[in-house]
Amino acid sequence: MKEEIRRTILAAVRSIPKGYLRNAVVKETIRCALYGLLKEKGFQPLPAFRNPRFPEGPVDIAGIKEDHAIEIAFCSNPTIELSNIKSLERVACEKKFVISFSPNKEKVKLSTFFLKPGIEHVYIYEDKDDHEGTKRRKNEKEKHNK
Length: 146
Known about the structure:
Elements: H1 2-14, H2 23-40, E1 44-47, E2 61-64, E3 70-77, H3 82-89, E4 95-100, H4 105-111, E5 119-123, H5 127-145
Parallel strand pairs: 3-4, 4-5
Antiparallel strand pairs: 1-2, 2-3
Helix pairs in contact: 1-2
């Protein structure tokens, strides 16, 4: 499922013109992509879900089953943040994902320190895609400089 999540998000993010890409736009695009993916999988998407018994902030989006039980929850940010981990810990469900999207791979790698058991990490710019993007940018730069 992680790979499907990553591919769905990458397709959505790559469809946005580069001039409009900034963290807030990417974060909301991820939420929209997850909404569609959850619907496709038969869940009712629930944006900004927060367990009312705890002070931690909401998760970005959760998926509920027909019996109104939460099955899956997501948080996203450029890097993994402790506040996301705490929010996910307060949601009673089997599948929990934190999604990071910073192009700075080292920053993301350092932030994995916050991960806890039971929370899976999805980094949308895996090696293969990152290298292809870097090659493409390099080629574009070379063409521009000529």
